[in-house]
C-alpha cells in the first residue's frame, strides 16, 4: 500500500507548483481591490448614490428600516389578496348577499301590479266557511 504513505516522508518530495511550470513563469494575482463587475445600470452615478443613501440612512436607521420592511409586507399581502381573493369575489359577485339584496330591491321597485280578483275568488269560500262556523258556534 505505497499509495497511502504521505508524500512528506518521501525523499523526492517536490511542491505541486514546481511540477507545473518554472518559477519565473508563475503569475500571482496582484493584491488589492479588484474593480467592480457591474452592469451599465449599476455603474450609473445616480444608482450608486441611491445605494449609498440606502446604506447610510435606511440600513443604519432602524425605525426607517423596519417601517420599510412592514410596508413591503403590507404591499405584498394586499397585492396577493386583491389578485387571488379579489379575482374570486369579482367572478362570484352574483352569488353574494349584497347582490341578492340589490336584486330583491330592484324586483320590489319594478314588480307588476297584483290582480286582487284572482285571489279574492279563492279566499271567499274560506271566509264563508269561517263565517258559517262562527254562526254554528253561536247557536
Please give a structural write-up:
It is a single chain. Helices cover 62% and strands 0% of the residues. It contains 5 helices and no strands. By secondary structure, it is mostly helical.
Order of helices and strands: HHHHH
Unreliable parts: none
Question: Which structural class do you get from the secondary structure elements?
Answer: mainly alpha
Instruction: Characterize the largest beta sheet: strand count, sense, and whether it forms a barrel.
Output: none
Strand residue content: under 5%
Q: Mean of residue pLDDT?
A: 79
Please tell me what the overall shape is: rod-shaped
**N-C termini distance:** 131 Å
What percent of residues adopt helix (DSSP H or I)?
55-70%
State the helix count. Answer: 5
How many beta-strand segments? 0
- Using the CA coordinates, give the radius of gyration: 45 Å
Top keywords for this entry?
mainly alpha, 62% helix, 139 residues
